[in-house]
Specification:
With 239 residues, the chain is of the alpha/beta class. A five-stranded mixed β-sheet has the order 1-5-3-4-2. The longest helix is centred in the N-terminal third of the chain and has 13 residues. It is elongated, with a radius of gyration of 25 Å.
């Protein structure tokens, strides 16, 4: 057995600095570490270079600083931005399930409702988010992990989920994200009748196929919905 490095410790927080282009600090992640350290602190040194720039462990450093604990660290001379990026690449990030569990354990109601909804209706995270918030947020992952999830109307989300699932007998890809988003557009249209659409699907089920985007789905839904309408019936327009 060979000893390859020394572990030092200090409360001189100002002696450390962050390295340029390291991964963005997550306040939620720091909070999670703080909570964990309050229960039991497991000693895991941060890694710094000879300038005390933090190469690995910036979240642990911030948590220990917040708790006014000594910071254990090891030094690797010559390490810099490249090594920080390699370490970040090889570090297992938390999954969305991990974050969901974390916020549920913190008794955050929106996340508890989200978890119950997702498990009940069997939609994935992104689709559940769209249904429950009515949003097509492009940065869903950052919003979800950061603790910013807000459920706008739980009863409406449940109602829309039931409607979407009612299409499953006609369309196997009814959980497809772009299809769900297209259906949410339909539900907001005052001219749309879901019962009528289901009726049209009884003899046009094979017409509903997987599409690449929301706009294409909306065109297809229009065609199915308006097929063989009476002359005096106002056609559905989704654009």
């Amino acid at each position: 057995m060979q000893k390859i490095n020394e572990v030092y410790t200090t409360k001189n927080y100002e002696s450390f600095s962050f390295i340029d282009n390291n991964r963005m600090v997550s306040k939620a992640h720091v909070g999670r570490i703080i909570d964990s350290m309050k229960i039991k602190r497991l000693i895991r040194p941060i890694l710094v270079n000879e300038k005390r720039q933090i190469i690995d462990g910036q979240h642990r450093f911030l948590a220990q600083r917040e708790l006014k604990l000594d910071v254990p660290f090891t030094v690797e001379e010559g390490y810099g931005e490249k090594e920080a990026q390699i370490l970040n690449t090889n570090t297992k990030n938390w999954s969305l399930s991990d974050w969901e569990k974390y916020y549920c354990n913190k008794n955050v109601k929106d996340y508890i409702d989200f978890s119950d909804f997702r498990k009940k209706y069997k939609f994935d995270f992104n689709v559940s988010y769209s249904i429950m918030t009515g949003s097509q947020h492009t940065d869903f992952k950052r919003t979800f992990e950061g603790g910013y999830l807000k459920i706008s109307n739980l009863k409406l989300a449940e109602k829309n989920a039931v409607k979407i699932k009612s299409i499953s007998k006609y369309f196997k890809d009814y959980k497809h994200r772009e299809f769900v988003r297209a259906m949410l557009v339909c539900f907001k249209n005052k001219e749309y009748s879901h019962n009528k659409f289901l009726s049209k699907l009884t003899y046009q089920g094979t017409s509903l196929v997987k599409c690449v985007n929301v706009k294409t789905y909306l065109r297809l839904i229009e065609d199915i919905y308006n097929f063989r309408n009476r002359v005096e019936t106002r056609p559905l327009r989704l654009f």
